Amino acid sequence: MLRMLPYKSLTEPFDPNTYLKNWETVELKAREKGFTWATLYENYEDNQYMSDSLLLVPRQMAYEIENASRAVHDIFKKTYEQIGKNPSALHQLGLPIMLWDLFLKESKTKFSYFVRYDFIASSDGLKVIEANTDTPVGIVEAAIAQEVLCNEHNSQNPNSEIDKRIRDTWYQVIKDYYIRSTDTLYFTCADWHTEDKQTVQYLMSHYPQKAKYVPLEEIVVQKDGLKTPDGEPIEYLYRLYPLEYFLEERSGTGEAIGEQFLVHVMEDKVKIINPPSALLMQSKAILALITEKKSEWYTRIEQDAIDKYFLPTYTSPNSLNSYVKKPVLGREGGGIQIVANGAVLEEDVDHYQSQQTIYQLYYQMPDQTIDTWDGPYTGKLLIGSHVMDGQPSGLFFRVGGLITGNLSMFVPYTTI
């Protein structure tokens, strides 16, 4: 368990009212800077999402997470290259067939520019359990909320370079996509989704050329391309919206406008960021493919990295007695089942039940105690590591249940 520094050291027994008053003070500071979802409304009540505790992470551990992030990203990059050489591997990834042409299309861009890898840390080392290569969030927490809370604790912010990494990534996108200074990069997401919208606007604020926000609901899909409500053509689009969701999008008259959108992507009438390859690498079946092809696709050094940082993962339980069953395109912990020694520890049966699944060796998450409205809470610690343009770019810690869902709490950190 990592050491924890509370926001306010209380000499009296824990008092919820005193704690809440202190918490609201720092929440307001974070809100004023652009982080507005320190609470989440779910199950008919407000839930605390931001803890004002500060995790004290040994500097050597932070270095190891950075090294692991580089190594894991290199393996994902190599895997993407190998799929390009062996397109039949697409059959194993559980991706919608209607999107295969997008994945097989030759591209000069990177497979993804904004990525978050999720790690479990224990005495046995770091293990990556999945990757969000398509639509990663947690960026605003790792940037804004992290800075505010470190300032409140008078502590160094290890994520202080994240703004620079975002700008550098945009410069690489401009280069790879050949975006001219006169071109506009449009930014979009579902306008009703506060977290996504403010993440999009935060990323847009660091874009060095012409940029405009257009709500996803207002994009006009026509036969000749995409347009804004004002009729401006959209050639370049950053979207914080899962690519597979477009297959279900319909107009008010029932037209398959999402499919038409994807046709425009296929025909290069609109160029999207993250690119379609980001969804390809989002499939959790990539982890099973890495296990299967370890000795065939990777060098000896890469095999050592796989042994060190990856968990054995398969398309069936095989001989595993303890495993985590995951839908290949599941999100926010949906559809996950955890089995230990043949017994189900926890599961979600309400989401993604029709998807192909993978089975990953169960690796127990460490306990971590943090301060909350209701007093000290002990949950499971998950480490998110942002990688932008291939470079480690800031950590994002969460503490929650056995299955890390959207109500798992964000916790800031500093290094010691």
TrEMBL record:
Domain Glutathionylspermidine synthase pre-ATP-grasp-like: 29-413
Keywords attached to this entry: ATP-binding, Ligase, Magnesium, Metal-binding, Nucleotide-binding
Domain of life: Bacteria
Gene3D superfamilies recorded: 3.30.1490.330
Gene Ontology molecular function: ATP binding; ligase activity; metal ion binding
UniProt-listed Enzyme Commission number(s): 6.3.1.-
Name of the protein: Glutathionylspermidine synthase family protein
Taxonomic lineage: Bacteria, Bacillati, Bacillota, Bacilli, Bacillales
